[in-house]
Amino acid sequence: MSDAPVLITGGAGFIGSHLTDALLAKGYAVRILDDLSTGKRSNLPLDNPRVELIEGDVADAALVARAAVGCQAVAHLAAVASVQASVDDPVKTHQSNFIGTLNVCEAMRQAGIKRVVFASSAAVYGNNGEGEAITEDTPKAPLTPYASDKLAGEHYFDFYRRQHGFEPVVFRFFNIFGPRQDPSSPYSGVISIFAERAVNGLPIAVFGDGEQTRDFFYVEDLVDLVVQGIEMPTVAEGAVNVGLNATTSLNELLGALAEVVGDLPPVSYLPARSGDIKHSRASNQRLLERFEVPEPTPLKVGLARLLGR
Ligand code: NAD
Ligand code: UD1
Asked: Which domain of life is it from (predicted)?
């Protein structure tokens, strides 16, 4: 490990701030580039001299280029993580979710950085995994601007791998949950919203019949894998799913939440969101072959930690 910082774009966000903690614990210095659109200063230990925060936009090419100078590796997490936000305003989210990625590629090339971990998404498969475990070779079917931007980003990292010797570790995260996931927008991650509403006794809205399923993965288990991606001696080609090959329906999630908090507030069922994926389940074979996967934190344990119980 060198003393040079790891650049984390989106480092003040949910996943990025846990990654910051994990890297600091291993002795790294981190430089964070974040526009604080959903990320927060309070997620970060800014009194630690090994943490530097640059407040700004990944769509600003010159700023990203300056931020990359002197870094040893990049974790590119900055994006508008809400799928629905990209449906509502594709032009705006494209700036963060695609132009930002291209700027990171160029900044790395100029700074001579090879290693990057990219937060892609299960969303690139669209509904193609319907009911089955999705392997990395499952045909891609991006249904939303969010998914199209992530898939395009993957192709660009592959171009820079072939053309400029980049070492991209491309993870397709399934649904990540845990403390610090911001529940404040209606488009926030479902677990953060349900948990917050459950503890405050506010009504819960399920979009659809609640039988849609997701492969929920606990954030600290995820950042363990991201650190491995930064450190691994050689990088194999091809994206890697991050999920458990296990699914939970929203109705089952509500049941688990009820066990952690006691009685739930009223739950109503509203029409499904357009572009919403029905079933999402990761084949984790490639993940298990390439990484030391930590013992998965069970859903109920993760929910209890998220609620501080
Ligand atoms: P988050 O919203 O908490 O984190 C995203 C961070 O990026 C925030 O701190 C935000 O302020 C920052 N950001 C957004 N646009 C920016 C811009 N233009 N310039 C600079 N910073 C910007 O969400 P998260 O769940 O931590 O997501 C992190 C990454 O993982 C994202 O790329 C997301 O698409 C991806 N991902 C998340 C999940 C999940 O389930 N949470 C699943 C798949 C992929
Ligand atoms: C999530 C991530 C996305 C990631 C994808 C990978 C967020 C905000 N989105 O998208 O970045 O790429 O996983 O799999 O982290 N729902 C309700 N009620 C609510 C909120 C949501 O019923 O109040 C439903 C949604 O309609 C959806 C399910 O819950 O069916 C999951 O929604 P959400 O948490 O937003 O995640 P994804 O769309 O799967």
From this structure: Bacteria
